[in-house]
Amino acid sequence: MRSGWQRSLLLPLCVTVVLSWSLLPIAWQVTTSLKPNAELLSLPPLFPSAPTTEHYRVLFEEQSFHQSLINSAVVSVLTTVAALVIGALAAFPLARLRIAGKGMFLGVVLAASMFPAIVTVGPLFVIIRALGLRDTWWALVISHTSFALPLTIWILTNFMRELPDDLYRAARVDGCTPWQAFIYIFVPLCRPGFAAAAILVFLFSWTEFLFALTFTATEASRTIPVAIVLFPGIHEIPWGEMAAASVIVTVPVFVLVALFHKHIVLGLTAGAVKG
Amino acid sequence: MKAFSDTRTGTMFLAPAIVILSAISLYPICALIWLSFRHHVLPFDIDQFIGLENYTALLSTARFWNSLVVTGYFAILSVTIEIVVGVVIALLLSLSFRGVGWVRAAVILPWAIPTVVTAKIWDWMFQPYVGVFNYALEAMEIIDGPVNWLGSPVLAINAAIVADVWKTTPFVVILVLAGLAVIPQDLYRAAAIDGASSWQTFWHITLPQLGTVLMVVILFRVVDAVRVFDLLYVMTGGGPADTTETLSIYTYKILFQTLQFGYGSALGVTMFLLVAGLSLVQLWIGRDMFRRMIGKRV
């Protein structure tokens, strides 16, 4: 269909353009994080004359960045576990049991995934303040879990639906309770679905900003995205430290994408949520 | 009898999800509507019922209308560019060549990184004196002196759209790639036999076959672009002179900088109705496609 010269010349050119567009901004941030302060104030030089880890040192030794790192990790992991457990429990009857109002429930779940966070953040703030949960991990875990649930339920329901119909019936005939069928048959068979959902939920919680900005007050619970925005700049904007923090928060994302991009694609095409 | 017992078991499985979704997603919507009819300012314990006053105040506020226009401009332009660029990149990556898997993974990366980082990356590149963007443009002699991209009322929103396109196009690429993969190859063979050009094949086979996928992508992208917050909040904070202040950012400022929870909630309700309305309109336009899709899935 395509002639030889097009494939051998045009294709590499187009791929290079696409790769540069996707990766150069990130590479530039990495370069920035390694530049000494003096070289951040002018261009050229494009590249640091002597790469330095000074900005990384400042992050950990002067700004207690490790606390933000811990906060982000704890919140994301707890959110992922909670969303997967609650989501799997909900997906099973939606995919397999004959229950009244199933379609309506899925409709509500789908509608809930469309709610802009900015719409609920006000009332949620009032609730969280009243419960005394402000500036705790729990405020973020609960709100993130709730926002990740529609996507999780949607993905897992789709995966459980694709298992053969007879599986559940055979299990029941053999004397399994619905609970046993769920734990011993459906959960193990849906591993790819769990992997896809887990990665998407983790990424959502790891990168979430609005709730994290609103419900945290001190570095005791502040996650990395909020820490990056609230970096103390006394005289000028600390571009070097912000770049270093950006690089650190991107590393886990980079690893997840490199290892599991097929699962991400699988989850997104099953769920088609999160922009 | 059987259906009844299934419903009881099912409800037990569903209970945790119902509890958390009701408490964290549905209850706040109700609270929002209730608050929007009240004069409620947080620090002074002011709280009284004022009916529709928040809404009439909103309709006569120029800043509200400005935020609507900004939101519309941002959503229309960013989604249009993302769809076009996304389809082109997806077509490229649907070809089979060595290393295509790695290229696909690399293309996903901007979508996966935190939006806050995206905002900082582009903020840094758009800086007038130390930004690499001006440096490159000056080196190519396209501009004479430094351009203040994020400080100019005309340029700031467009600069933000560039950043948004960078971040969200991968989402379009992923879904369109999945859509391309399920187009029957017979259609292409038939087109080749009929002597169709690549261009004709694209317009008459690829694009119509992508219809459903594109409807879904546009639905999600429009809803997402209309509620855009993180990117603009970090990049411009709504400035300069409110030219990048979208409805979300305006709402956030009213809620958490002025603590006017009543008026802020009226803005929230408006936002909710806007998003719900846009979704319903799109679902209605694509009703036949969605019916077919759900019929296939359920």
Question: Could you please describe the fold and organization of this structure?
Answer:
The complex is a heterodimer of chains A (275) and B (298). Chain A has 275 residues and is an all-alpha fold. Chain A has helices spanning 4-33, 37-40, 54-62, 65-96, 102-114, 117-130, 137-161, 165-173, 178-189, 191-207, 210-215, 224-229, 239-271. Chain A has one domain (65-271): Orthogonal Bundle (MetI-like fold). The longest helix of chain A is centred in the last third of the chain and has 33 residues, at 239-271. The radius of gyration of chain A is 23 Å and the shape is globular. Chain B has a single domain (52-297), classed as MetI-like fold, CATH 1.10.3720. Chain B is mostly helical and 298 residues long. Chain B has a two-stranded antiparallel ribbon.
Q: Which of globular, elongated, flat, extended, rod-shaped describes the shape of chain A?
A: globular
**How many helix segments of chain A?**
13
Cross-sheet strand order for the largest sheet of chain B: 1-2
Q: In what range is the share of β-strand residues of chain B?
A: under 5%
Mean pLDDT of chain B: 89
Q: State mean pLDDT of chain A (0 to 100 scale).
A: 88
Rg over CA atoms of chain A? 23 Å
Helix content of chain B: over 70%
Most extensive interface between two protein chains, with residue counts? A-B, 96 and 94 residues
- The number of domains of chain B is 1
Helix content of chain A: over 70%
Calculate Rg of chain B over CA atoms: 24 Å
CATH topology of chain B: MetI-like fold
**Low-confidence spans of chain A:** none
What is the succession of H and E elements of chain A?
A: HHHHHHHHHHHHH
Largest pleated sheet of chain B: 2 strands, antiparallel
